[in-house]
Specification:
Blueprint (H helix, E strand, L loop, with lengths): L1 H21 L4 E2 L4 E2 H4 L9 E6 L9 H5 L5 E7 L3 H15 L4 E3 L2 H5 L6 E4 L3 H13 L3 E4 L7 H14 L3 E3 L7 H11 L6 E9 L19 H5 L26 H18 L6 E7 L13 E7 L5 E7 L11 E7 L2 E6 L2 E6 L4 E6 L14 H15 L9 H20 L3 E2 L11 H4 L15
Parallel strand pairs: 3-4, 3-6, 4-5, 6-7, 7-8, 9-12
Antiparallel strand pairs: 1-2, 9-13, 10-11, 10-17, 11-12, 13-14, 14-15, 15-16
Helix pairs in contact: 6-7, 7-12, 8-10, 10-12
């Protein structure tokens, strides 16, 4: 294993060296795009070569838009560090699309292929930003699942990398591409409920007991060292790789806020037209199955306070299925003259007395609290990514800057929980001003040789 670990680190260092040399070209015009990137803009009629990296629960959501002949896309690679994932995805894609993309376990080989135009990153959270930056350095457009970063520092890096390499970066917050959500947000901004002042975002699920970790050999077919990648490496523990890494500490995951709150907090922020808050404070605790392997809170109430008298509240209950609001997830926006309820299924507008003014029942089919997701909104979101990459549209549903800001709210809630402290923030960059120890959590510790760099 030590030899394998050394080889992976050497591969990573070689990749960074080549990426730095490739990005050293001149820039063109005021846009500041590297010459290499400018030369690789994809024409409307050119076939786009793409790769899927991470073949767990989300990759299936990309197949309908990839398989749509109007998008003129070729799925050249599929990539995962687990043999069974590669095999299952290969069979599924052949059945659904009638094609057989090349299987690959090492994403860096894909980044090195100059024929690949764009990549989809659906890995665990700790890989999102490092993989996205490596792809950008090699001239790829990037669609990256939420959360767009594992920590606030990575968000800063990714925004800078997008600017430097001149490529499209889209986060997988698919509700941004909902016609109904776009419609009601526009109505809110045009005064449909007066002055919006409060948004309550919520998520309710009844997740069960999480296995306690037990040290054992990695499952057959899993490249555990590559799975860990930029995270601090440790011995494998039972049931980590498939999903429970979300709850096994902070080395890999971002808890339920990064896993699910991000979607609704993003809608709340969009509706209120706010960015970085002035204050963040939370009440959070592990309330269920006290002796199981879940290591962080499973219940959280968070408050994001803005200086212009606007507030976002997050009500997250991961393991108590009582439906407090209407449905398992959504966002309620309160205004001086009414209120709005919006989720992936549509929206309802009410006047100040609570009378229903408009009801939009969306025809979309998009998963809510079920694992995996996928559906019409994901298809629209990927189509938007393709259109922006090709230059067919200049209106990107989820620019990287928006994704990073919404993700930052999740990180700040987690930091407030971990420090048991209210956070006062610099509204310009989100840096924590009242707690030096909390600011130490702005970034993470990386495995030596794996630190993301631009």
């Amino acid at each position: 294993m030590e030899e394998n670990k050394s080889n992976i680190k050497n591969t990573r260092r070689d990749f960074i060296k080549k990426s730095a040399m490739g990005a050293a070209g001149i820039t063109i015009g005021a846009m500041g795009f590297p010459a290499k990137s400018y030369a690789r803009i994809i024409g409307a009629n050119d076939r786009m070569n793409v790769a899927l990296i991470g073949l767990g629960r989300r990759y299936g959501a990309y197949l309908p838009p990839i398989g749509n002949k109007d998008n003129n896309v070729n799925l050249k690679y599929i990539c995962d560090v687990m043999d069974s994932q590669l095999e299952n995805a290969s069979e599924n894609i052949k059945k659904r699309l009638g094609i057989k993309p090349k299987p690959e376990k090492d994403m860096m080989k894909i980044f090195d292929d100059n024929e690949v135009d764009a990549v989809f990153i659906a890995t665990p959270d700790h890989w999102h930003t490092p993989a996205a930056i490596m792809a950008l350095q090699r001239g790829k457009h990037v669609y990256v699942e939420k959360p767009i970063s594992h920590n606030p520092y990575e968000g800063e890096l990714l925004v800078e990398a997008k600017k430097r390499y001149g490529k499209v970066v889209q986060m997988g917050n698919q509700q941004r591409s909902s016609i109904e959500s776009q419609e009601v947000i526009k109505a809110i901004h045009e005064g449909a409920i007066g002055n919006p002042y409060l948004a309550v975002a919520f998520y309710t699920n009844s997740r069960g007991r999480t296995p306690n970790q037990t040290v054992q050999a990695p499952p057959k077919g899993l490249d555990w060292e590559m799975w860990q990648g930029p995270a601090v490496h440790r011995e494998y523990t039972h049931d980590t790789w498939n999903y429970n890494w979300h709850w096994y500490g902070w080395n890999y995951g971002t808890a339920e806020t990064g896993n699910n709150a991000l979607h609704e907090l993003d809608i709340a922020r969009w509706a209120l037209k706010v960015g970085i808050p002035d204050e963040v404070y939370v009440e959070a605790k592990k309330q269920h199955f006290p002796d199981d392997g879940w290591e962080m809170y499973d219940t959280m109430e968070a408050t994001f306070k803005y200086g212009d008298d606007k507030i976002i509240k997050w009500d997250g209950k991961s393991r108590n299925g009582y439906v407090t609001y209407r449905g398992g997830r959504g966002t309620i926006i309160y205004g001086s003259e009414g209120s709005v309820f919006v989720n992936r299924g549509g929206y309802r507008i009410f006047d100040r007395k609570g009378k229903l003014v408009k009801d939009s029942s969306a025809a979309t089919q998009e998963a809510g609290t079920a694992l995996g997701g996928g559906g019409d909104l994901s298809t629209r979101h990927v189509n938007n990514f393709f259109d922006v990459v090709r230059g067919k549209s200049t209106k990107q549903s989820s620019p990287v800057e928006e994704g990073v800001t919404s993700t930052l709210l999740c990180h700040l809630a987690n930091i407030s929980y971990r420090m048991d402290s209210k956070l006062r923030l610099n509204r310009t960059n989100g840096h924590i001003m009242n707690n030096n120890q909390a600011m130490q959590l702005w970034r993470r510790e990386y495995e030596s040789g794996w630190e993301p760099k631009i």
